[in-house]
Amino acid sequence: MANRKHVSTLLRNIYNLGRDVNAKFNQVWIYAGAMVIVTVPVLAWLTIVLSIDEPFCQNLLVYYGLNLIHVSEGQNCNFMRFLLIFIQFPVISMNTATAVLYVLLCCFSRNILKEYLSNGEKVSPLDCRSFKRYLIFYEQIFEVLSSLEASLSFPILLTVSNNCAFIFYCFMALDPFGKSPWPLAEHFYNFTTLTFLISLLSFLCVTLAASSVGDETKNAKQIQEKLLQRVLASTRKPDRDELMVLFVTHKRPAFTLTAWGFFTFTKGLILPAIGSISTFSLLILQIDSK
């Protein structure tokens, strides 16, 4: 409940900051995100229920029901279709909703930073007072990003970890090089392929969206330094010391989003992560094939 309040406050703060800098929030992104949250679990469910037959459903029912659930003959698939809704939907829906929410918040924050940079190039007249307002507004952005980190860094860690685990499992199950001694059952081929693509896209979208926020904060620091040089050049010498104190007082480092502090989201994370998963999967397949 507390985390829900934090997210609500975060959404309100992002909206207010966007309004202050005239940042545009495309509502199409919100509608598209809502469609993704609904569509992904439904597709995952359909890829299984449309490809299973009665004997396979009976085996699944024994597995999930611990041999304690018995239904009349010919009704195993109908019961499993109903049961899979409660098995699949909570996990897939939660992971998808977390990833979509995180990506949207990162994109909105990036848009705010872009408008902040654009406004910095148009500051006029450029004096100590306007420069101070510019620095104070960045502090507000910094606080919102800190709130984003505090509220969603742990959920996004679980989501990204889940994505990596699914990529690893699906890569081994699909066995693109024919190394596995236990080929994937044909009933799960469509589901495994879909899960692999969804997990990969989720990992890429989360990483790229989060890293774009860090890139914009680095650009913001460069703009602030350029503005400082311009203000110093047009300021009388007695006021320069006060200006430097102002800059140091309101100075904030570039902000990098993390997954609960375990790793930072940068574009350089993508290739090592995917390469490590692929290498380890091939190693396991090679060992199993011997």
UniProtKB/TrEMBL annotation:
It is found in: Cell membrane. Signal peptide: none annotated. One of its GO terms (cellular component) is plasma membrane. Its main location: membrane. It comes from the Eukaryota. Keywords: Cell membrane, Membrane, Receptor, Transmembrane, Transmembrane helix. GO terms for molecular function: taste receptor activity. Coiled coil: none annotated. InterPro entries: Gustatory_rcpt. The chain crosses the membrane at residues 28-52, 82-105, 152-174, 194-214, 269-287. One of its GO terms (biological process) is sensory perception of sweet taste. It is a multi-pass membrane protein. Belongs to the insect chemoreceptor superfamily. Gustatory receptor (GR) family. Gr5a subfamily. PANTHER family: GUSTATORY RECEPTOR, GUSTATORY RECEPTOR 5A FOR TREHALOSE-RELATED. This is Gustatory receptor. It comes from Araneus ventricosus (Orbweaver spider).
